[in-house]
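Title: Prediction job returns without error message
Component: structure pipeline
Severity: low
Priority: P3
Assignee: unassigned

Description:
Job completed but the reporter wants confirmation the result is attached to the right record. Sequence as submitted:
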Amino acid sequence: MIIRRFLTVVLTCFCLCGMVTAQLQKHVVILGDSNTWLGGDECDKPEGWNKWFKDLAQPRSCVSYARSGATWTHTSKTVYDTKENTGVLSDNNVIYNQINRLVEACDQGIQPMPDLIIIMAGTNDLWFADKRPDRLSKWIGYDGELLRQAFPQAKLILVTPPPFVKVGMEKQHQAACEIAACAEMLHAGVVRLDGGKKPFCASEMIIKGYSKDGVHTTPKGAQVLGTYIYEQIKAIVQQ
């Protein structure tokens, strides 16, 4: 009887572990700005958080469409453009065009249809606020609806900008609240990186070796960030 109960417990744990693993075996795409772009299109470069996320999640596929300098916010001159790759702020270097690149890649059979779409952006909208005066919610909602139409089966998760030293924490917190409200409106998940010690504070990024410039992650900072984001997304997916 004792042996039978022991085997039952072991098998139950094994099945539950299998269920958790299966939940993370997804086709993942990631959109964003420089801290995601640092990880490379294949999410294999240690300076980007998405490399560490991929290592932990072990998805079926994981591709980044991120671009350095990208913003959520469009301008009056923004147009459909899937070719430009300036690496800096520009009218067409926006999440909208990363979505367009993703849709094109799926239509051409280059990219598997995503099960999980992660977007971490907003740093440049805050940093260059004079060039991006529109509210984030206006464009997050627009881009979110585009993704819903193109990939209705995919789970969407918005990640707020990681702490950085170029903008005060109050403004970063306000932006995170705005992104979280958009996530709720879109019935998407949200991972908040603002405030407290989750996963680190802007003031300690350089001191602890997480960043060289107070904005972009080193491999050490990327690992801390990627591990935290993985744990939060795992919890969201398992709900």
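Comment from assignee: result matches the submitted record. The longest helix spans residues 2-24.
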